[in-house]
Design brief:
By secondary structure, this protein is mainly α. 64% of the residues lie in helices and 0% in strands. The protein has 14 helices and no strands.
């Protein structure tokens, strides 16, 4: 016989969370809403959605890495930097899938995109700011979203991961110029002789400066993957849309090619030529 006590116990028992519920798969799998009948639009949507998810994780990891380096907590920072490099590897693989789409297949739904463009990805801009490629003008793209503008401005005026690293070199007594420590961090870092000299000392004495040596290599590894991501972006766009202007009004391939010349951690690359 069903008792009141048994009924109360059943009602108070927490509901077991399901795999689908925990991951909110109903929301995720309903988020693909093609605007045309073109078969390949689903590929286009999913590739960009999954890339934004990986970028969200990269921002999560880079943000905590900045705090770790600022707090001289380097061992966990090595792990998070390695994780971000692996995230970039996933993002690079995503371009391989998108490149299976031909120009004629993209043309079938390109008109449906209107003015939307990857150029408008605020998460990509956030990653650029976190790693030091600062450009205040790029925030204007998001002027209609106050919350996003505030997040990007906060990142613009905060030290980048390389700013934190240079300050670490200073704290470790490697003679960084005061002008570099006190510089305006809302601007991109410019190669500096004192920073280069510090890295040369680290690379010539790895046992003495093992943590700094390992941090340097993690940063180089990150930038290596980041360059590949940019390169794959350029070649994918060239393959799929050629030299047409981007849907969001950007210059398309020519803009992306300029990004290939950006060097995030210049002294780490220059040091290699002087060892």
């Amino acid at each position: 016989m069903f008792s009141a006590e048994a009924g109360a116990a059943t009602m108070s028992k927490p509901k077991e969370i399901s795999y689908s519920g925990y991951l909110q798969l109903d929301r995720i799998l309903q988020a693909q809403q093609p605007l045309s009948t073109a078969h390949d639009e689903m590929l286009f949507i999913i590739q960009h959605q999954t890339s934004e998810l990986w970028m969200k994780l990269a921002i999560h990891e880079l943000s905590v890495t900045c705090k770790m380096i600022a707090g001289d907590n380097l061992q966990p920072a090595f792990k998070t930097l390695s994780r971000v490099s692996r995230i970039l590897e996933q993002l690079n693989s995503a371009w391989d899938v998108l490149r299976t789409m031909t120009p004629s297949e993209y043309t079938e739904f390109r008109g449906s995109l209107g003015q939307s463009s990857g150029f408008q990805s605020w998460q990509y801009r956030m990653i650029e700011f976190l790693v030091g490629n600062k450009n205040a003008a790029m925030i204007g793209v998001h002027h209609d979203d106050k919350a996003i503008v505030e997040r990007l401005e906060a990142a613009l005026f905060a030290p980048s991961i390389y700013d934190h690293t240079i300050r670490l070199l200073h704290r470790r007594g490697l003679g960084i110029d005061k002008s570099v420590i006190d510089r305006d961090v809302s601007l991109p870092h410019v190669c500096n002789e004192s920073v280069l000299s510090a890295w040369l000392l680290v690379y010539r004495n790895p046992r003495r400066f093992w943590e700094l040596y390992e941090l340097a290599e993690k940063l180089v590894d990150f930038e290596d993957y980041f360059r590949r991501w940019r390169f794959n972006h350029v070649t994918t766009v060239e393959r799929v849309i050629g030299f047409k202007r981007g849907t969001g009004g950007s210059s398309g391939v020519s803009y992306l090619r300029k990004m290939l010349d950006v060097v995030l951690f210049p002294e780490l690359w220059q040091a290699r030529t002087q060892l």
